[in-house]
Amino acid sequence: MKSLDRKTEIITIAAKLFKEKGYSAVTMRDIAQAMDIKAASLYNHIKSKQEILVLIIIEIAEEFTKVMNEIMLSDETCIQKIEKVIQLHVDITVRDSDALASLNADWMHLADAELAYFIKMREEYEENFRKIIMKGIADGELKKLNPEVIIFSIHTTLRTLYLWYGKKKSLNASVLKSNMTQVLLHGIV
Amino acid sequence: MKSLDRKTEIITIAAKLFKEKGYSAVTMRDIAQAMDIKAASLYNHIKSKQEILVLIIIEIAEEFTKVMNEIMLSDETCIQKIEKVIQLHVDITVRDSDALASLNADWMHLADAELAYFIKMREEYEENFRKIIMKGIADGELKKLNPEVIIFSIHTTLRTLYLWYGKKKSLNASVLKSNMTQVLLHGIV
């Protein structure tokens, strides 16, 4: 249990450092220093910077994948499914914006197998989101607009939310969720 | 006139190279090579890479500023003003996505006076956009939603459009404009 907590602490501190300085510029020594421990102690808990990156990115990517799969299997309407996707992004952004920053900026530093696994998860996620939108249009739940424009505008807003949220922490999660759902689904007019 | 055309060609080719390799990695020699001329000839038209960057970024920033100022001075409704802002972004994206990529990725490489001028234009632009949204909410033209969420979602969609449009060139400008206006103003439901 103690060791698990220590791992969480390493990941949290490393994600913050990766965001501030970029993955490549951060050393294991920097991470140890930020935790106020010796570099040798750090290696008792974790093998390498690469292992930390895998823990940060793959964990978040698996969470997106798991919740998206649940959404896809549910009997809900397309609109309800989109609402769930928006909630998922807001929840992870509010809880873990440093890790999301690392996922967006540093995923290309993952090594072979993990990189392939990450890209596969991302592609499936995007494919599932596309299916929801296409079905929503086909069933008449969504307006007959160009699906690419819909997918892009919702996706880019949710994907860049962590950049903006870092500066607006005063907004609480439930206010953000309800306003984001209104703006993205029902518009501002 | 001949010289002006040459300058446009330099800017067009340099913006493409900056996008592909990043501003710092591109040399005047690379630009000359891509134009199939000698580096010495390039210097007949332009003093430095920095001068090219200024031409690319400041020209686009001044265009955004000029059109935004016209929009602010007009008697139109807030909704019409937002429509004009969306049109402006789509027009510049469709016409000049390489230059927009350079503006977004390389603005911090501008030297002192131009950097300050660029930041001032950007801040005024964002301030004007905020005024339109705040007035729209105050006048009851827009829904009473959190203005920060509205501003962020529209702004991030328009700002990242060039990244997406590069891959979707098949979409023509007027279809993109009308669909983007629908999605951002009136929603997808």
TrEMBL record, chains A, B:
Domain of life of the source: Bacteria
Domain HTH tetR-type, chain residue ranges per copy: 4-64
Family matches, as Pfam families: TetR_C_24 (PF17932), TetR_N (PF00440)
Keywords in alphabetical order: DNA-binding
The entry's DNA-binding region: 27-46
UniProt-recorded Gene Ontology molecular function terms: DNA binding
Stored PANTHER family: ACREF/ENVCD OPERON REPRESSOR-RELATED (PTHR43479), ACREF_ENVCD OPERON REPRESSOR-RELATED (PTHR43479:SF11)
Protein name: Transcriptional regulator
